[in-house]
Amino acid sequence: MSPPVAPPGWSRWLVPPAALSVHLSIGQAYAWSVFKPPLESALGLSGTQSALPFQLGIVMLGLSAAFGGTLVERNGPRWAMTVALICFSSGLLLSALGAATEQYWLIVLGYGFVGGIGLGIGYISPVSTLIKWFPDRPGMATGIAIMGFGGGALIASPWSAQMLDSFGSDSSGIALAFLVHGLSYAVFMLLGVLLVRVPRSERPVQSAPSAFEGPQVSARNAVRTPQFWCLWVVLCMNVTAGIGILEKAAPMITDFFKETSTPVSVSAAAGFVALLSAANMAGRIGWSSTSDLIGRKNIYRVYLGVGAVMYGLIALFGDSSKPLFILCALVILSFYGGGFATIPAYLKDLFGAYQVGAIHGRLLTAWSTAGVLGPLIVNWIADRQEDAGKSGSALYGLSFVIMIGLLVVGFVANELVRPVNARHHIPAPREAADAAVRQQPESA
Amino acid sequence: MPQSDSSQSPPDRRPLIALAWVWVGAPLAYGLYELVQKATQLFTG
């Protein structure tokens, strides 16, 4: 399939909604927890078993983004969005069949494996195209799309809950809910497939530099550079620090103020989690757009440096002031979202727009690693501290110190980022032609 | 015979842009509304 080229007069402002239609849909994955309790009671599953489709989905997201990135670059955004639509929707339809026939393995296969491929391909599908359309504001453009992934959970969480209330939480009700999800998301994502276009020229905005100006590095070469691995560490550390809060937000705020005169109720803790989601989403568009003004390296200095200070403030004074605890947690979560949304523009700055989608896909393995690392650190340490007879904020003190250490490691990795050595650049067309002429035999 | 200017000008994309943004904006507004409802529990709950 050849990439769809924009006809004359096509507006670049049609591309962000195309990207959003995909990201808002696949962001549903973060609302999987809504399906967990009904599945557990309807099919007699444990909590660990009911988490399997989501966990496999996230693993498949990382793998398909890493290995499918080159295909996405080769075949274009419409092909990628079509694959994402087919995989994500058919994954939900397979899950509907699994729930209707009470065959749980079908739900794991459908939602986790097939749907997970849709997550990975869908996540990277608009990145390269947005950067080419918005060479003057790549941070803002990718921030809009990646904000959609956070927004998808906001939509799906109440929507899925209301659907299960209406259809019932038995296996046939769950099946019907999966069916409606699959069909609705297919229609919703179709907008992206129909609207997405690649720009006619390399310079869609005459006043802006071309996305292809400066050094261009292929995905194969990018993974051989120290810059790629520095950014891998930066993303991994930033995401781990965010997940450190996100993973245990509700019990954390409850524990912190349990022994104070103003304990936090269960509903207030749920409100805190919702507020963190809002900060995560706002950070994606807000900080990523700010990076267009102050530069990518500087914004990561803020994410990692100020993030470490925020963790320090929570560790030292968090249990004495609820507003301070909430404010610091919100800032950390906004940096978590900002880190995700700014990384494609950082990659474009270093490696050019040539294969930025494929490079981004490979870098997302840092996310998968952090997804394991963050919860592991916080949960394991909290359990050990509880076994040692500690309670309240003392359960988390050591975790916070580790998070500060990880953020410092990320900060140092960011400081080590330098322009990519010219030997990794792909030759410009004229250079390539000259090189080809030089390689011709003299007699030819 | 010369072609008229109107046949060469690209179509007006503004209605399509508006439709596309409403398509994605409406569900996002619903999600944000639900989020605000929930987040207020932090101060009232």
Write up this protein.
The complex is a heterodimer of chains A (444) and B (45). Chain A has 444 residues and is an all-alpha fold. Chain A folds into two domains: 12-195, Growth Hormone, Chain: A (Up-down Bundle); 219-419, Growth Hormone, Chain: A. Chain A has 18 helices and no strands. Chain B is mainly alpha-helical and 45 residues long. The A-B interface holds A 7-11, 13-14, 17-18, 20-21, 24, 148, 151, 154-159, 188, 191, 195, 265-268, 270-272, 274-275, 277-278, 326 and B 9-11, 13, 16-17, 20-21, 23-24, 27-28, 30-32, 34-36, 38-45. Chain A: It is found in: Cell membrane. Chain A: One of its GO terms (cellular component) is plasma membrane. Chain A: GO terms for molecular function: transmembrane transporter activity. Chain A: Residues 1-417 form the Major facilitator superfamily (MFS) profile domain.
Descriptive terms for the model:
heterodimer, A: mainly alpha, Growth Hormone, Chain: A, 2 domains, 18 helices, 0% strand, B: 45 residues, mainly alpha, MFS transporter (chain A), MFS_dom (chain A)
The pair of chains with the biggest contact is:
A-B, 35 and 26 residues
Query: Taking all residues together, what is the mean pLDDT of chain B?
Result: 82
If helices are DSSP runs of H or I spanning 4 or more residues, what is the number of helices of chain B? 3
In the predicted model, the low-confidence regions of chain B spanning at least 5 consecutive residues are 1-6
Calculate Rg of chain A over CA atoms: 23 Å
Total separate domains of chain A: 2
Superfamily at the CATH H level of the largest domain in chain A? MFS general substrate transporter like domains
Helix content of chain A: over 70%
Report the total helices of chain A: 18
CATH topology of the largest domain in chain A: Growth Hormone, Chain: A
The ordered string of helix (H) and strand (E) elements of chain B is HHH
Helix and strand pattern of chain A: HHHHHHHHHHHHHHHHHH
Name of the CATH architecture of the largest domain in chain A: Up-down Bundle
Portion in beta strands of chain B: under 5%
The low-pLDDT segments of chain A are none
Question: What's the story with the biggest beta sheet of chain A?
Answer: none
Query: What is the distance, rounded to the nearest whole angstrom, between the alpha carbons of the first and last residues of chain B?
Result: 75 Å
The number of distinct β-strands of chain B equals 0
